[in-house]
Amino acid sequence: MSMKSAFAPKTRRRSGRPTLYTPVVGQQLIEAMATGLSLEAAAAQVGLSPRVVFDWQQKHPEFLQAVQEGRQRALLFWERRAIAMAEGAPGNAQLVMLALKNRSRAASGWHDAQRLEHTGTDGGPVQVQPVVTQIDATKLTQEQRDALRAAILTIKQSNVS
């Protein structure tokens, strides 16, 4: 053993299992998504777990680009189906609409948006007024008075405890 090799820094071995990532996996993902599959479904078809997909997007820029291209191809698939159906081809419009809404909602613009506002007069706050109902006990039957008395006693007892 030479003196030089005894003092040379050792190369550090990586711990854990080596990655199975190859650019081929990204291409397989694109091809699966081009059939209309979501990222999650395409990953399952290719044999990837959601955790691996997330990790690889962080570690491999080319994989992230493959995911983005796959999303575009899936959206293209569903938009072509919608156009074909609009031109008379058979198909399930509800399914196509649901698929379009669930694809990249923010980026593609295919989504339902509902906005509900409650305002009072001239856009001011809503005014709430208590409703007071007066009961004329003289017009009630004995049975109705007994039921009313029981209800009032129950309410009083629940407020005490």
Layout of secondary structure:
Elements: H1 3-7, H2 23-33, H3 39-46, H4 50-59, H5 61-86, H6 93-101, H7 105-108, H8 142-160
Helix pairs in contact: 2-3, 2-5, 4-5, 5-6
General description of the model:
The relative contact order is 0.07. The N and C termini lie far apart (89 Å). The protein has a domain of 89 residues: Homeodomain-like (Arc Repressor Mutant, subunit A, Orthogonal Bundle), CATH 1.10.10. With 161 residues, it is an all-alpha fold. The chain is built from eight helices and no strands. 57% of the residues lie in helices and 0% in strands. Helix 2 crosses helix 3 and helix 2 packs parallel to helix 5. The longest helix is centred in the middle third of the chain and has 26 residues.
Question: Roughly how much helix do the residues carry, as a percent range?
Answer: 55-70%
Helix-strand pattern, N to C?
HHHHHHHH
Looking at CATH, the homologous superfamily of the domain at 20-108 is: Homeodomain-like
Shape: elongated
Main sheet properties: none
Q: Might you state the CATH topology name of the domain at 20-108?
A: Arc Repressor Mutant, subunit A
Unreliable runs: none
Number of helices: 8
What's the alpha carbon Rg, rounded to whole Å?
Answer: 33 Å
- CATH architectural designation of the domain at 20-108: Orthogonal Bundle
Helix/strand class? mainly alpha
The count of β-strands is: 0
Quote the distance from N terminus to C terminus.
89 Å
- Overall residue-averaged pLDDT value: 84
